[in-house]
Design goal:
- By secondary structure, the protein is an all-alpha fold.
- It has one domain.
- Helices cover 64% and strands 0% of the residues.
- The chain contains twelve helices and no strands.
- The chain has helices spanning 8-21, 55-65, 69-85, 89-100, 108-122, 126-146, 151-163, 171-181, 186-200, 207-223, 228-242, 251-254.
- The protein is globular.
- The relative contact order is 0.13.
């Protein structure tokens, strides 16, 4: 299993190169790699954030008044994509982060960590980026200590460790924890399996890693047997990997190519 764990900084570089060559077939960042179920367990246009003046308050209201961490992470991701396209991502994320710090919800720590990761990824200046990472390191440790059985907290740690080698975390260990603690959630299994599938590209296909992918996707389909959108999404993701030159698929991932 040690061979599965490679240099994440190299992985991120390869992700950017693959995306550039293949028209962004795969996400360019591990923070974007986990499929959070938009269009599978929730509508594609679940969150819009049309008005920049009220968008941060709208996001904070969603986080404070609705339940379900999967939906919260989808909302944050939709918010970030909306304002990245508008060229306003850093100020709008900073605004949302400022309001979220006042939250008394324990889950807010997971959301804060996700937003800090998005900010650190976006910052071009070394100073602000380093500041976000300094805050992230103890925060991720607190999440792990206070919410050890929270699969979504683990999944956020997975994405952060894979994105920032400075955090000195093991993304694979965290992914397996998320997979185990989210055993009864199809949303978690899809998210974990899709993240592992994304990372599997960086090894050109690793049979042992693909076994865990198989377990995650199989469990997701078992938990949601009537969800045809889920089956299509898994099949599409697997086929995208199979089309990558040099990718070595095992029977475990091939099992989903025609589903």
């Amino acid at each position: 299993m040690r061979r599965i764990i490679a240099s994440i900084s190299g992985a991120c570089l390869m992700s950017l190169l693959i995306a550039a060559v293949l028209g962004a077939v795969v996400p360019s960042s591990p923070l974007e790699a986990a499929d959070l179920g938009a269009g599978v367990f929730a509508p594609e246009a679940e969150f819009v954030f049309a008005d920049p003046e009220t968008a941060s308050r709208e996001l904070l209201s969603l986080l404070e008044t609705t339940s379900g961490m999967a939906g919260h992470l989808r909302a944050i991701r939709a918010f970030s994509r909306r304002f990245r396209e508008a060229g306003l991502l850093v100020p709008k994320l900073t605004e949302a982060l400022s309001g979220l710090r006042a939250s008394k919800r324990e889950e807010a720590k997971v959301e804060i960590a996700f937003i800090l990761g998005l900010l650190a990824q976006e910052e071009e200046s070394e100073g602000p980026r380093a500041g976000h990472l300094r805050e992230l390191e103890p925060l991720v440790a607190v999440i792990s200590r206070n919410r050890p059985a929270d699969p979504w907290g683990r999944l956020v740690a997975v994405m952060l460790f894979a994105s920032f080698p400075e955090l000195h975390g093991n993304w694979l260990d965290e992914a397996l924890y998320a997979q185990c603690h989210g055993y009864d959630s199809a949303e978690v299994q899809l998210a974990v399996g899709s993240f592992m599938l994304h990372m599997d590209l960086f090894y050109g296909g690793n049979e042992r890693l693909q076994w865990f992918i198989y377990l995650a996707f199989s469990r997701a389909q078992t938990l949601a047997p009537q969800n045809e959108a889920l089956r299509r999404r898994i099949s599409e993701m697997v086929k995208a990997n199979l089309e990558m030159p040099g990718y070595r698929p095992s029977k475990w991932v091939k099992a989903f190519a025609g589903s």
